[in-house]
Amino acid sequence: YKCPNGHYCPQGTSTKPIACLAGTYIDEGAIDAAVTGGEFTADTLNDCNYCPEHYYCERGTTYRF
Fold it and tell me: How far apart are CA 25 and CA 4, in angstroms?
């Protein structure tokens, strides 16, 4: 299962994808070494990155710009 961009999916649970907080973002390029079976996954809030300075990222943002 590939977690949708802008969200993380806790492993071992059946909860719905959780959106990254406002001020953070996540996309396939943002996930470092979290490759499982050839697909990028995000499983914790720590996989969400801070939005770059001078930019605003709404909750669940998928791109850093």
Answer: 12
